[in-house]
Write a structure and sequence with these properties.
Blueprint lengths: L3 E5 L4 H12 L3 E6 L13 E5 L8 H6 L6 E4 L14 H29 L2 E6 L3 H4 L4 H21 L4 E8 L12 H9 L9 H13 L9 E4 L7
Parallel strand pairs: 1-2, 1-4, 2-3, 4-5, 5-6, 6-7
The structure holds NADP nicotinamide-adenine-dinucleotide phosphate.
Amino acid sequence: MERHVLITGGNKGIGLACSRLFLTCGDRVTIVARHASDCELAGQERVKLVDFDLCRIEAIPELIASLPPVDVLINNAGVMYSLPYDQYPDQKREILLKLNLEAPVALMTALFPQMVARKQGRIVNIASIAGQIGHPDIWYGISKAGLINVTKSLAKQLGPHGILINAVAPGPVETDMLAVIPEPRKQAIKQAVYTGRFATAFEVAQTAFWLGSDSPEYLNGSCIDLNNGAFPR
Ligand SMILES: NC(=O)c1ccc[n+]([C@@H]2O[C@H](COP(=O)([O-])OP(=O)(O)OC[C@H]3O[C@@H](n4cnc5c(N)ncnc54)[C@H](OP(=O)(O)O)[C@@H]3O)[C@@H](O)[C@H]2O)c1
């Protein structure tokens, strides 16, 4: 059965890999991002592109009301600035916390009434290893720790209504986001994983697709560690 999958940031990087995978499997995909309409998937069947800045938290209920019912939400859009904690402009901190944490919560909140009414729905939150072990960009780490925590809190409350809410916590993934990480740190991270490479966007998408499709009902409120052994040894 064709499902409607809402993917934030589905126009680039990990989100684009998710969009491609759900489309390949026959689903309908709505991509929400600031520049969604520039996406390479423009014009394809079963793709809807919505240009929207997810920092506009107050407009998120209206955004959801304008879309057909959503079966699967992939909360993927995010930003990392890689700035030191004592040189962090207020405006950047506000954008990061809105996009990485408040928007996913607002999207879930706006979708719950329709999902509860249908007694089904799957939500996948793209977190990060940063939320588990800390990060040089403390606000990024804080936002991802918060996302993992809210995954558990909301799964506890919505699980009894048939809704599955899980997270994926990847280590570094080959996307544009890595551009802000200094080269020596990138090399050190590569040396800390079993296979000496970063994850691919497709590997994250495969995991998100499984959580959004076939993972068992008993897996709820969990966070999948997709890090190739990168926890500190
Ligand atoms: N790459 C990694 O190493 C890595 C590791 C672990 C977790 N993650 C997480 O994975 C997710 C995707 O990261 P990525 O590496 O694919 O990053 P990316 O290539 O930089 O893509 C970021 C996405 O977020 C969208 N976005 C940014 N600001 C937005 C806004 N204000 N409103 C709506 N959409 C916005 C972007 O689209 P527009 O520019 O068109 O708005 C883009 O689609 C993020 O949550 C990130 O924290 C990444």
